[in-house]
Specification:
The complex is a heterotrimer, with 1 copy of chain A and 2 copies of chain B. Chain A is mostly helical. Among the domains of chain A are: about 45-145, no CATH class; about 200-270, Structural maintenance of chromosome 1. Chain E (Arc Repressor Mutant, subunit A, Orthogonal Bundle), CATH 1.10.10. Chain A is about 45% helix and about 10% strand. In chain A, a hairpin with a 6-residue loop joins strand 3 and strand 4. In chain A, helix 2 crosses helix 3 and helix 6 crosses helix 7 (about 230-250). Chain B folds into 2 domains: about 5-65, Winged helix-like DNA-binding domain superfamily/Winged helix DNA-binding domain (Arc Repressor Mutant, subunit A), CATH 1.10.10.10; about 85-195, Arc Repressor Mutant, subunit A. In chain B, helix 1 packs across helix 3 (about 35-45). The chains are: A mainly alpha, B alpha+beta. The interface between A and B is large, with 34 and 54 residues.
Chain lengths: ~270, ~200, ~200
């Protein structure tokens, strides 16, 4: 738990609780024998114990003496330790803090650091008030007329049932259109492959060898292509003519030369 | 009206909270052997004409809703919903090809048909089970109903436009592929829940 | 007394038959969008002083037995679960501070809250998860439910015992030490000697 709070002596103005404080009066504070105070299971942590100790001062929580509270808590811890009772770490951390706070409260004011002991004390007091208020609120809540304990709903309600029914809608046009789309979708599909302008490898081979036969010098590959072909045919002719050139070189009918990478590819007939 | 006395109030609350009808004796025992007859009579008279009655059934007393308001306990709510694309197609196929089995519907549509799709058409009252086809597996076959004809304003199924008329109206033109793919997605069994309700309103 | 009109009777029958408390809107919807406000007011007045009451809890209406008859109706079998002290405290903190995170609950109680404690309240249907707080870590925050109001007989959270006084005293402010420091300053400014008025209202 956090230990960012502590207490200070604020009880100088021992408050006289006014009427509006009813809720914070310790309704559950029980008169208990001191001996019972060593029942460790009785408290849910040190704040709970502090609240109980504070209520034993029998004043409004706003008027409690923090110094007295600190002393009571420390006494409690000491007695528990003397009896070798197992103490949760929370309780010891709180004890250490309260001991520090007590010394701070007793020191001259000038030597105080920030936050001041008075502020720390106020925080502790506020926390106790908050917890006390919630404990009181819980008790009042539980004491209300509760459904199923003090007041009762109808034992055997008939129940309300709403049956949802659908009214479907569709019109003539949607119906006929849907059928048309089913028919259109499932019509046999005919794939047409359009004729494309290509130069086959065979025709490229005969064209390149024929042209090589009438030329003695090196010729660039592109000179073998049909001069006025449309781009698509020209690409096809280039590919076919290239393969034809490789074929002629492989069969020893032509020589191939290329001066640089991606440079023009040149062909020359091999004279036997 | 004078306010009810404590015994009347106690009997009223006891019967209200009771999980089962109670005999006068049981009420009396519950309330420390008080004589509850007069209280029951007074309550009966008080609730006469209200939305709730105190009634005696086989010597047991209970509150119940006034008989004329029984319809409030069970209400019907009509939701108007548009037929989904898939259901419209199936309905059209049944109308054009009836009687037709589910397998045949699927063959014509070219996609699987969710069970819910036919259920919707049965619920709408436009399609009925027309028996079984006498082939192996004896599949259920479906046909349209008189309600179908009247809803779509048809004198008979012959009023449905023929294939030639559909073609003339441009309804047989191939549709955009993406659109078809989308329609197919919606129509398949993979999404039976949304397939039916996706385009309902 | 004039006999109740049809709408009053219908609202009466509907609420008697309902298994759950109903909002005025739900009653209205059930009765074909009738305006039920006046009918509810008339029924409230009619059942005033009877063994059964019409009450509003968190904007939902329900009939229930009159609280002063509790001693006659209490059953051997307690429907109400006994809550541990920790659970009652947590419930009160949620109700008075909602929405509230677990860390905030723990800051008020000064002890860790066992997971089971909140679970008990969630299971009872009195507390619900009300989202997450948009701060680092996005902690889950808790709030009470309409069933909480029904169970504890509260028309709304404003009916929580002493909530106005607690708020005025600053005891429902967020747990924040900087705020405390501020309060202290304000307090000491006005009454520098005592600091007693830190809980100024």
């Amino acid at each position: 738990m956090s230990v960012d709070f502590a207490g200070s002596e604020l009880s100088g103005a021992a408050s006289a609780p006014d009427g509006s404080d009813d809720w914070s009066v310790a309704a559950t504070a029980e008169e208990r024998d001191d001996a019972l105070y060593l029942e460790l299971d009785g408290w849910e942590g040190p704040l709970d114990l502090l609240l109980d100790l504070a209520r034993r001062q029998k004043v409004d929580l706003r008027g409690i003496s923090i110094l007295e509270l600190v002393d009571q808590y420390l006494t409690y811890i000491e007695r528990a330790e003397a009896l070798r009772l197992e103490l949760a770490a929370d309780y010891l951390v709180m004890a250490a803090w309260l001991a520090y706070l007590k010394s701070a409260l007793l020191l001259p004011k000038e030597e105080q650091e920030d936050p001041s002991p008075e502020e720390l004390a106020l925080r502790l007091q506020l926390r106790l008030q908050r917890l006390g208020a919630m404990r009181e609120a819980a008790a009042r809540l539980m004491a209300r007329d509760r459904l199923g304990r003090d007041v009762f709903a109808r034992g055997a309600p008939e129940g309300l049932r709403v049956d949802r029914r659908n009214r479907w809608q569709c019109d003539w046009y949607s119906l006929v259109q849907a059928y048309g789309q089913v028919k259109a979708r499932t019509q046999p599909v005919v794939h047409l492959v359009r004729e494309r302008a290509v130069m086959t490898l065979d025709s490229a081979l005969s064209r390149v060898s024929a042209m090589l036969g009438v030329n003695l010098d090196w010729m660039e590959l592109r000179d073998f292509l049909p001069p006025h072909a449309e781009p698509q045919l020209r690409r096809s002719a280039l590919a076919s003519s290239f393969v034809a050139a490789l074929e002629l070189a492989r069969t020893g009918k032509a020589e191939l030369a290329q001066d640089e990478t991606f440079g023009p590819l040149r062909l020359k007939a091999v004279r036997a | 009206m004078s306010p009810p006395d404590d015994l009347v109030r106690a009997v009223e609350a006891t019967l209200f909270a009771a999980e089962e009808p109670m005999t006068a004796e049981a009420i009396s025992t519950h309330l420390g052997d008080a004589d509850v007859k007069a209280a029951l009579a007074e309550l009966c008279a008080h609730y006469e004409g209200r939305g709730v009655r105190l009634v005696e059934r086989g010597r047991r007393w209970q509150f119940q809703t006034a008989p004329d308001l029984a319809h409030l306990l069970r209400r019907e709510r009509m939701d108007v919903r548009r037929l989904s694309r898939a259901a419209t197609e199936v309905l059209a196929i049944v109308a054009y090809h009836e009687p037709v089995s589910r397998a045949e519907i699927e063959a014509i549509r070219g996609v699987q048909t969710a069970k819910g799709t036919l259920d919707v058409l049965l619920e709408a009252g436009w399609v009925r089970v027309a028996g079984r086809r006498e082939v192996p597996g004896r599949p259920v076959i479906y046909a349209t109903t008189p309600d179908f004809l009247s809803h779509f304003g048809l004198a008979s199924r012959r009023d449905l436009p023929g294939i030639d008329e559909l073609r003339a109206a441009g309804l047989l033109d191939p549709v955009d592929d993406d659109l078809v793919a989308e329609e197919l997605e919606r129509g398949t069994d993979r999404e039976p829940a949304t397939g039916e309700s996706a385009d309902s309103d």
